[in-house]
Amino acid sequence: MIMTTFESTAKTINAPRKPVHGFLSDISNLGKLVPEGRVRNLEVHQDICRFTVDGIGEIGIRRLPSREESVIRFESEGSRPFSFDLAIELDETPGKNTELRLVLSAKLNAMMKMMARKPIQEGVEIIASMLSEELNNKQLHAG
User: Fold this and answer.
1) Dist. CA 107–CA 118, nearest whole Å
2) With contact defined as beta carbons under 8 Å apart, do 11 and 127 qualify?
3) Considering the domain boundaries, does residue 143 fall inside one?
4) Which of 30-39, 52-61, 101-110, 111-120 has the highest mean pLDDT?
5) Residues 6 or more apart in contact with residue 92 via CB below 8 angstroms
6) How many domains would you assign to the chain?
7) Burial level of 97, CB count in 10 A (0-12/13-18/19+)?
8) What's the pLDDT score for residue 98?
9) pTM of the predicted model, to two decimals?
10) DSSP class of residue 52?
11) What range defines the domain where residue 81 resides?
């Protein structure tokens, strides 16, 4: 297995880092951001979220404990279709906005890497854009 990293472009959230971190740290909020029609069987329990993506299968993520406000870390729960780690990096900008970036590190065999590289990269970018759009619509404020 080869560790392969996929990184989104930076997305701007019109809110300070602290409320963005607070919202994204609650895995039940992430469950609310999953796009309707693209996933099935969404289950959220404490720090674990599971769902089924057509064409990929069941995916589970577990939020890892962290005291850092600059990153929220997750790991795959189960290894189908592959095991991965996901980081949501949050950098506060001088204007009190937040720059969000997703970094997914996946353990892929050579064949899976060749076949899945483009769809995974596109997926990471779509999720980052979706999170950015949803967070900007929420109008989070420092609190």
Assistant:
1) 15
2) no
3) no
4) 101-110
5) 16, 17, 98, 99
6) 1
7) middle
8) 96
9) 0.88
10) E
11) 2-137
